[in-house]
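thought: fold this chain, then report.
action: predict
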Amino acid sequence: MLHDSVISTERWEPSWSKLPDQSRTRALLAMLYDVPLNLVLNQSELDRHGRQIARLQRYFEPLHKTAATEPMTGFRRLTSDGLVQRTTFGDHALTVTADFSTTAHNGLPGGCVDAVVQGGKPRRLCPAGL
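observation:
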């Protein structure tokens, strides 16, 4: 169990870079739900995108350390089109806001995610810019 829920994982055969638009969405979803990315890697992929993948992991690691054993206690769609979403884990141990759109929402650029570990400052990740 993860986040006090039964888990299923995506099955993703293409490499990380094969569908760039999907890569951004997959990264945002992983951060929003605090679940590790399921990546198919080979040496060519690591040679071309290893630094990007490492940055994603460096961003994800402290979030997951904070909230992996916490239940997801909140989920909200912050815009009527559902493209900006927020999750909360535990008693606000972690709050993550993801903007799946192409425009900014309340200072969060489109295609980016902000995560706040309780008591800390927001940390931003914009996967398309990695």
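thought: worth noting. The beta strands are 72-77, 84-89, 94-99, 112-117, 123-125.
final: tokens above.
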